[in-house]
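Q: Hi! First time doing this. I have a protein sequence and I read that you can turn it into a structure. Is that right? Here it is:
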Amino acid sequence: MNSSAQTEIRRLAEGIRHSLSLDDGKLTGDVRTGAQSLLDRAEDRLGLGEDYTVVAFAGSTGSGKSSLFNAVAGLDIARVGVRRPTTSRPTACVWGDGGDDVLDWLHVPERSRTWRESALDGDDQRRLHGLILLDLPDHDSTAAEHRIESDRLVGLVDVVFWVVDPQKYADFSLHSEYLTKLAENSANMVVVLNQIDKLSPEEQKAAAEHLRQLLQEDGLRETNVRVSSAVTREGIPELRSILADTVDSSEAAAERLLADMQAMAKRIRKELGQPVAPPDELPGASRLVATMSDAAGVEAVAQTVHDDYIRRAYRKTGYPVLAWMQRNAPDPLGAKHGQDRDELLRASVPATTKAQSAHVRLMAHELITESVSTMPRAWQNDAAEAEKRSTDELSDNLDSAVTAVEITRRNPGWWSLANTLQIIFFIATLIGVIGVIASALVAAIDSAALPTWCWAVSISLLVIGAIGSAITSLMAKSARNRGATEAATEVDGRLRAAVGQVAQSSYLESVKAVIAEHRKAYEMLA
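A: Yes, that's right. Below is the predicted 3D structure, encoded as structure tokens:
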């Protein structure tokens, strides 16, 4: 058998087996039964090897199928009926030695088996070595067991020759019940317009052309159409040549199995439906993370970090007198100064309200529903179950995510520099004020006793201290605001990232697992 075809057969077989391993309800009972039957058949047929190619002649009552079978075989093997259908069981003609294992697998009775060659044939039959030709029961027989047997073997053989006659080649039941349903196997079928001896040359041409048109409409674009007559032997050599070429290629069995595997894969994919994008790839995912962040109090924590930074920075870098006066100003962390400030930062997070929780659940539900809306109902149910499990754990997971983020309190080096400058300028201002006051008192008592430089030094210190304090305070204020914003932004980003991780791993992950399982099943059959 063709190695690439076998590789593809095994790949699709693995995909089909995976689909069968899915939970009940993911595939209909008919598909499960058909898929398992196909896997069993493929395993059996591949195990029988490539020594024999099985070709069946199938047709309706009165099509001359058995007469054509005998003509191709060159022996009077199959019984030919005149008024009533007589083919009640398959008849086999084998070219070459052996083939019993294949015939046993096909359940062809031993009394219905004939080995074609004899010493009198010489090399006449050499090209057909390895051929098992079957004459099937009539597919439209009045006997139900005949129809069942014909359908069973049509599903097992490597190639089917559909034999039709000029009167019934356009029969609706033949095309709708058989040919159309086997369109995937069109490359492994030949349609033979038999009994052309009953038609004039013009009628033969017209009937053959009409038959080709009907097959095109049935989707059998690769099916070979031939004409024949068991009476005049017209077309028999061509049919034998097609059979010989089929045997020579040794690919008919693999091609039939591959076509059946592809048809089953397509059937399963149709039931699975197209893969869908995971919810975190939808536009609503970012809105969900924002809503979850609000519910987790991310903004409140970031604002507390900002206010805490401003308070601590001002106490270090503000004008000493004003900083001292604000020592009792409201602390953003309340009056809990005895605790660790990291704990106080987290303690400032407001409790999630029921309205916030409900809003998060609603947005998550809408996001997941949108993501899986095109999946079959069974997969939507799985996604809903996964969502319910995640929702039950959402509050705890959000709380754990927020409290796990380390909040580092910044104490930048410029605080110490600003504090030193503020102290120096404050002292200079204080000395300048004292100097000016002292100089004024001395001048009031005895102006001649006060050196001029005393005024100059005192006023200079006062001016330098005041200007230095003002500049330092303005620069410190700008730096405090910038630093507080940076600290709050950093914490906000890390907290939102943690919440986003909760949305990904703890909340959406279980739903994504359902979607991934669906995608895997679909892609294994691609």
